[in-house]
Amino acid sequence: MSEQVRQESVGVQTGETLVDVNGLKTYYDDGGIIDSNPVKAVDGVDFEIKRGETLGLVGESGCGKTTLGRTLIQLEDATAGEVLFDGTDVTELSGTELKNWRRNSQMVFQDPESSLNDRMTVGEIIREPLDVHDWETPQERRERVRELLDVVGLQPEHYYRYPHQFSGGQRQRIGIARALALEPEFVVLDEPVSALDVSVQAQILNLLEDLQDEFGLTYLFIAHDLSVVRHICDRVAVMYLGNVMELGETEEMFANPKNPYTHSLLSAIPEPDPTADKERVTLRGTPPSPRDPPAGCPFTTRCPMKIRPEKYEDIDPDLWVAIEVFREVLRERARAEKSLTEIAKEKLGMETRFSDIDEIRTELFGDLDVPSRVREHVEVAANHVEQNDEHAAREYLADEFGSICDAEDPSMHVVSDTGRTSNCHRHLPDYQEPDEFTPYTER
Amino acid sequence: MSVTDDPEEATLLERIQDDPGPAMRWLAGALLLFALEAGAVVNFVTGLFGPGMELPTLLSRELIPNNGFQTPAGVWKETFLGLSPAVAWGIRVALVYVYAIVCTWWLWRGYLVFREHYRYADWTPRDDMIDRLRGHRWGQFGAVIVFAFVIMAMFAPALGPTTVERTIQDPYSYTVDYYDENGELANVTVGQANLGARSQGTPDQNVGVMQYDEYGRFHPFGTLPSGKDMFTFMAAGARVSLFIGLLSIGLSGFIAASFALLTAYYKGLVDLAVVITGDSIMSLPRLLFVMLLSVVLADTWIAGIYSGGLLLALIFAATGWPILWRAVRGPAFQIAEQEWIDAAKSFGQKPRITMQKHMAPYILGYLLVYSSMSLGGIIIGVAGLSFLGLGVSAPTPEWGRAIDIGQSYVTTTSWHISFIPGILIVLVVTAFNALGDGIRDAIDPQSEGGEGEGSEAVAAGGGGA
Ligand code: SF4
Predict the structure, then answer these.
(1) Quick one: A223 and A101 in the same domain?
(2) Element (H, E) at A27
(3) DSSP states of A91-103 as a string?
(4) A277 lies in a domain?
(5) Which residues contact B402 (CB under 8 A, 6 or more apart)?
(6) A303 touches ligand 1 (CB under 6 Å)
(7) Which chain B residues touch A146 with a CB distance below 8 Å?
(8) Using CA atoms, how far apart are residues B280 and B450, in angstroms rounded to an integer?
């Protein structure tokens, strides 16, 4: 599928490819003794970044965007896949080769309070990368630092000041100067303005844009603030649960999101013009744990446009949502840790907090008109739960109400003539396109 | 401060060449101060390789002698300016402390000169710490006592009314002059004189605090049951305690810091291994274990060095590092989470330098705090071992042994034998703790109360828009 993407995106952007990411996975095994499932922070992503462009990377917190950024500059080890930088797979580099490559890609960190060592002068901080790489002579390094201070809008006299003496915005400028010291081609900006006052954010964004023009930098801009992304990025990748859901040109995507997740995410932005008539999709629930992502589409547990099995196409959307929520509740409960007393109570056949399935049913289906062909299945599942066999209940519901969304991981489909790609089964010819489909929650 | 605007960074030496005045003035003073005591330093250094070289020194007992004899007419001979031994000794002690205070003040001035004339930065985070320490009365109390103790240890040979050599180690090779009952100048060995100056708990067999014995020798702290001068004993004992304390705390601090940095940087298995080792050592009853080790190792060659002092220092270091490591592990892990560590990794800084430059300075303060606090514990531990007859072997002076020896005289007129070392130990240990408190509050103002933390959290919350 990445083949398909690459062919299609030729001509989207004139620069050549600088960073090419293929099937990248980064799993953390944080050594938990009980829970041995690794955290699948990045779970198979493919994309490329063109020379000189700014690629935005957005998503809710915990979706893996920061880990992805850190993997690209080799602060994390990739579990699988490759990151081609100018054709070299940097996940394979080590030792001197890795160190030399590091000059090419730098990072600006999120929190300017934490990214500068308070015990060093500003000059020492910016100079450190130069010292590490034995850049020219010590005197030239000092000159370079002063030049960098000037470039990021600080004074050369600030050389001997300490970070404590600067404001958040100024500290971020120092961090930017440090990232630029080695003249990198590629800079990962990890939410560079999210910790700053709104009044300062614009200044830093402008500075970043100016620097990009001046030095021909390529940016990966990680953010959760979509308005910032719209302002600064040429293209955007939308991430959810370790996967890229949609990737394409910024304006086009903001104007007409194709993927159901992008759709939900964008509709959550407050509209600058309140009279604009725009439907808002509120996402229910929380993302599933990245230790245990859903089998099919990553978004399946919350998707407001999920494909229904044919025989349930006609049922009331509210009822459909209720069924979905019912399934998610069971899923959450399976994930929730049971305490020892609860396990003991269960074994003794006593009431536990996990046995209130009837309450849940009343809550979800009480007000709805549930046809018997649905009711019977819900009842079978509830019975399983009462027998403390939640697994069987989930299996049963998945068999009955599940669709291609639960079963198969969707692949990237090209969805516009600019080469935008979206990761959703609805782009298959058999189904209604997401942008033509009204989410259940809005009907 | 025009130097700040100079675009070229110069080395400290070049900066001093540019404006040599203040540095030269300071250096002249420092040399003068040093010259006064150069003899002692030369003597100490040459003493390491053989018999020490003797040079005239201001604060020496030769220059201000306090040993002499009183003629029947009541005139003192051979003492400094014919003063009584008590006064002569007092002058010498006073001079030693004045000298030490002046030296310390001069060092502080040196720092101020550097700060004012040669440092580029107008302000560093360290300045704030020093300011906070300046306002910390309890910490200053500790610092003053610790200072007095350290000076007592450093200048032990000059401070005592007599020397360890003369009265403790080799009393039968030296003599004292005195006028006997018949009014004639007589001569007796120190050993014999000591026999006449014993403190045995009876009024006629006791030389108490600030008393003379019958040979005209002055004993500021009285004498031991064996008749040896106790102040000399205490001053030399301070040296032993300080040596053992500093060496063992230095070693365990080094081990603790290295482990904390390594485990915080690499985490995972390295951490687990150190946690297991450290906790196993900590789970041992320390004093019992120390006793066991000092008995087991008592016959090895290492026990012969410095009368067993080196061995004790090593044992205390080996058993003490986990306590310090526990104290700095948390801070080290916190620092390892800072983004500047990631930044250093991202441009390829070597792990060792990252640990040194970006992590170590932040745990050093904690290390200092806990070191000064556990130093007291080690001094007590060493004294406790001597009290039990283990540890530093006789005749090398050790405070704990004095307490032990004096035990049976506590309720008698010779109460000073146990009481003085006991009180001094309490004072010194408290002082080290107070100093530790002071340093902690200086490096970490938040630890004083919740207020600082709260307001910072509010500020952070407000900033994160
Ligand atoms: S594949 Fe299904 S669940 Fe996933 S986004 Fe598309 S419609 Fe929603």
Answers:
(1) yes
(2) strand A17-28
(3) GG--HHHHHHHHT
(4) no
(5) B224, B230, B233, B234, B237, B417, B418, B420, B421
(6) yes
(7) 7
(8) 34
Q: By alpha-carbon position, which residue is closest to atom 4 of ligand 1?
A: A297
**Phi, psi angle pair for B93, to nearest 5°:** -60, -45
Q: Which atom of ligand 1 is nearest to the CA of A300?
A: 3
Q: Rounded to an integer, what distance in angstroms lies between the CA atom of residue B287 and that of residue B292? A: 8
Which domain covers residue A365, as residue numbers? 310-402
Question: Where is A88: in which H helix or E strand?
Answer: strand A88-89
Among A205, A233, A261, the domain-final residue is: A233
Q: Looking at A233, A256, A276, which one is the last position of a domain?
A: A233
Query: Is B361 at the interface with chain A, CB within 8 A?
Result: yes
Of the partner residues B4, B123, B347, the one whose CB lies closest to the CB of residue A129 = B347
The reply to whether A191 and A68 lie within a common domain is: yes
And the tokens for A355?
């046995």
Cβ atoms B395, B177 nearer than 8 A? no
Q: Which amino acid is at A394?
A: R
Residue to substitute in A297, A427, A431 for testing ligand 1 pocket (most ligand atoms within 8 angstroms of CB):
A297
B347/A102 Cβ within 8 A: yes
Ligand 1 neighbour A193 (Cβ under 6 A) = no
B-chain residue closest to A157, CA distance: B5
Beta-ladder partners of A58: A223, A238
| A175/A316 same-domain check | no
**pLDDT by residue for chain A (443 residues), tens digit each?**
444 444 443 333 457 899 999 999 999 876 555 556 889 999 999 999 999 999 999 998 889 999 999 999 999 999 999 999 998 999 999 899 999 999 999 999 999 999 999 889 999 999 999 999 999 898 899 999 999 999 999 998 899 999 989 999 999 999 999 999 999 999 999 999 999 998 899 999 999 999 999 999 999 999 988 889 999 999 999 999 999 999 999 999 999 999 999 998 888 766 555 555 555 566 777 888 888 888 899 999 889 899 988 888 888 888 888 888 888 888 877 766 666 666 666 666 666 655 577 778 888 887 888 888 888 888 888 888 877 777 888 888 888 888 999 989 999 999 999 999 999 999 999 898 888 888 877 66
Rg (CA), chain A: 25
Which of A 91-150 lie inside 8 A of B, CB atoms? Answer: 98-99, 102-103, 106-107, 109-111, 113-121, 123, 128-129, 132-133, 139, 142-143, 146
> Do residues A206 and A335 both lie within one domain?
no
Residues A372, A228: one domain?
Answer: no
Please tell me the pTM assigned to this model: 0.82
Does A38 fall in a domain? yes
Which residue, by CA, sits nearest to atom 8 of ligand 1? Answer: A306
CA distances from B36 to A281, B41, B88, B244 (A): 85, 10, 19, 28
Asked whether residue A156 is assigned to any structural domain, the reply reads yes
Tell me how far the alpha carbon of residue A9 lies from the centroid of ligand 1, in angstroms: 23
> Which ligand 1 atom is nearest residue A403's CA?
2
Q: Which domains does chain B have, with CATH numbers?
A: 11-122 (no CATH), 167-219 (no CATH), 234-462 (1.10.3720.10)
Angle formed by the axes of helices B416-443 and B230-266, nearest 10°:
30
Same domain, residue pair A201 and A350? no
Kindly state if the Cβ of A300 falls inside 6 Å of ligand 1: yes
The per-residue DSSP string of A322-337 comes to HHHHHHHHHHHHHHSP
Asked whether residue A30 is domain-assigned, the answer is yes
For residue A251, report the distance from its CA to the centre of ligand 1, in Å.
23
**For chain A, what is the domain count?**
2
Residues A78 and A167 in one domain: yes
DSSP secondary structure string for all residues of B50-81: SSPPP---TTSTTTS----EE-TTS-EESSGG
CB atoms within 10 A of CB A125: 25
Across the interface, of A70, A106, A160, the residue whose CB is closest to B120 is A160
Query: Is the minimum distance from the CB of A302 to ligand 1 under 6 angstroms?
Result: no
